[in-house]
Amino acid sequence: MFFWASGKTKIGDSIFSPAFGAYAQIFPKKFESLGYDASLMSGFDTLVVLFGTYAEFILPAMIALGLFTRLASVGMIGFIAMMSFVDIYGHNADAKTIGAMFDRFPYGLIMDQRLMWVFLLLVLVIKGGGPISLDYILAKFRK
User: Fold this and answer.
1) Which residues contact 59 (CB under 8 A, 6 or more apart)?
2) Who has the most CB within 10 Å: 19, 20, 81, 94?
3) In a domain, 96, yes or no
4) Is 32 helix (H, G, I), strand (E, B) or coil?
5) Each residue's pLDDT tens digit in the chain (143 positions)?
6) 60 inside domain
7) Residue 59 located in a structural domain
8) Global pTM value
9) Beta pairing partners, 11
């Protein structure tokens, strides 16, 4: 639900137009340098924002349904890596927010929380969706 809630903040008037804040979340420094004027963002920037927003909805849904689980999990790992990069360098997260791996502090969200997400997704990459996934059901029909 974390990714769905985040994705909802990036949708504008329609699913084909990003919200004002979407550019600020994904390209914070560039958007600020352009005076927060979305019309000055390039077409490529808009595509990145749209595809990033779609990924926040589609990839978790695919994992929850067990559809192309391994591929969707690899996509989510890449998404988490980019999200972490933007949070650290784009939003200038401080050391307290970034945290350190396996520290005992609950407010260092980036390292511990995202390491846990990546570990869980790696399990899905290695093991697949399991016996109650759509992948499993589809594999039975292919035989």
Assistant:
1) 3, 72, 75, 76, 79
2) 19
3) yes
4) helix
5) 778 888 888 888 887 888 888 999 999 999 999 999 988 999 999 999 999 999 999 999 999 999 999 999 999 999 999 988 888 888 888 777 777 666 666 666 777 888 889 999 999 999 999 999 999 999 988 86
6) no
7) no
8) 0.84
9) 18
